[in-house]
Write a structure and sequence with these properties.
The complex is a heterodimer. Chain A is built from four helices and three strands, in the order αβααββα. Chain A is α+β, with helices and mostly antiparallel strands. In chain A, β2 and β3 form a beta hairpin. In chain A, α1 crosses α4. The longest helix of chain A is centred in the C-terminal third of the chain and has 27 residues. The termini of chain A are far apart. Chain B contains six helices and two strands. In chain B, strands 1-2 form a two-stranded antiparallel ribbon. The longest helix of chain B has 33 residues. The two termini of chain B are 57 Å apart. Classes of the chains: A alpha+beta, B mainly alpha. At the A-B interface, α2, α3 and β3 of A face α2 and α4 of B.
Amino acid sequence: MKQTKSDLLQGTLDLLILRTLAAGDMHGWGIAQRLQQISQDVLQVNQGSLYPALYRLEQQGWIEAAWGDTENNRRAKYYSLTKSGRKQLAEETASWERIATAVTRVLQQA
Amino acid sequence: MSLGSRLRRLRGSFRNNAFEESMEAELRHHLELEAEMLAARGMSTGEAGDLACRRFGSVSQVKDECRDSWGLRAIDACSQDARDALRGVRKHPAYAAVVTLTLALGIGAATAIFSVVYAVLMQPLPYAHGERLVEIRQEASRLGVADAGVSVKELAEYRAHAGSLDAVVEYHQMSFNLVGRGDARRRRGVRRRI
C-alpha cells in the first residue's frame, strides 16, 4: 500500500524528539525507530537529520547524553530529558496544540 | 582575516577529537543497528547495509550539520548573553553604574599598586647589567648607627682594593641651604661623588 509521507514541519522534529525521550532514555537509532513506529511511518525522518537536532537540543540543555551499554553489550550514546527539557516540552506541546487547533478551525470554516 | 574564516576558526575551537570520535562512533552504531534490523527481516547483509545507508542520508553532510549545531550554539549563546547584558544595563542604569564604578575603582587601584610595586621592586635598575649592581654600606655598630656613610678616603680605598668590583660610586643625602630672592630655605638633596 502506498502511503503519502509528510515532510516534517520546521521545528516539529525537536518537539517529537523531546516527547519520545519523555518516555525514557534512548539512543539515536531507538528514537528514529520509535518515531517511525508511533507515527505509523507517516512521518518520514531522514534518519541522519535526527543527529544535528539531537546535538542542538543537547547544546540547549534540554537533553543530556551519556555513553552506556546496550542489552547486547555494545557502547551506545543514550539521551535523556533534562528538567528544562521537560519544561520546554510542555511549552512546545501547548503551542503546537494552539496552532493545530487554529489551523483546523480555519480549514473547517473557510 | 575575514570575518567568515574567523568564525570558522572559532567554531573549530569548539570541536575537538573527543567530539569527533564520539560522533563517529554514534553514527556508526546507528548504521549497524539499522542494518542488523533489516538483515533480521531477511535481507542479505550487503543489501541491509546499503539500505541502512540510504535511509540515513549523507554521513558527511550529517556530520557537518552536527558540528554546526554543536559549535554555532556556543556562539549563539555568547551573543545571546551579550544581548541580555546590554538589555540589563539599559533596564537598571543605576545598578550598572555602581557595578561599573566598582570595577573601575578595583581595576584602577590594582593597576596603580602594581605600577608602584613594579617600579620599586621588580623593574631592573636603569643601568647596563643592573643585576650586577651591589650596594655597600658601612655600619658603626658600637655607636648604634646602621648606615654610617663613606668618607672620601674610604671610597678611594674601596676603589683601590675591592678587586671584585668594576667600579665604585658613592652617593649620599644631605640638607642644603637654598638662598634665593626671599627667605633662605632648607632643602634635602642627593649628592653623588664620583
